[in-house]
Design a protein that fits this description.
The chain is an alpha+beta fold and about 120 residues long. Helices cover about 15% and strands about 55% of the residues.
Length: about 120
């Protein structure tokens, strides 16, 4: 199964087990993150609805990109400026594609109703 997610202003096509480099996301190496902005999902040539769909990922490392040299010059004005920039990146490993958070919430609700002894309204009918 694959999904197209949006993070950091860019879109990425991901599948379980993929490694991607995205704009900086807060978190330490080994932490889990959830990418909730899923634009498209499917398997093979079939597309699936993306309502409530999330992508779970694990942070592998926080890194910096290659240095980009910014050089400004104005001819005949003795004006030269040299500057460098290294963009902050996060390397992610996609662990799963699916609505796991909602499943966990629904399981928690079922467990809470089972503990209180209250029956669901649909079960009474």
């Amino acid at each position: 199964m694959f999904a197209v997610v949006r993070t950091g202003g860019k879109q990425y096509r991901v599948a379980a087990g993929d490694k991607i480099v995205v704009e900086k996301i807060d978190g330490e190496a080994g932490a889990s993150v959830t990418l909730g902005d899923v634009l498209l999902a499917g398997e093979g040539s079939e597309l699936k609805p993306t309502d409530g769909l999330t992508v779970a990922a694990e942070i592998i490392a926080q890194a910096k990109g290659d240095k980009v040299i910014v050089f400004k010059k104005r001819r005949r004005h003795n004006y030269r400026r040299r500057n460098g920039h290294r963009q902050q990146h996060t390397i992610l490993r996609i662990t799963a594609i699916g609505a796991q958070q909602e499943e966990k919430k629904s399981r928690a609700k079922k467990a809470a109703t089972a503990e209180t002894g209250a029956e669901a309204p649909a079960a009474q009918a």
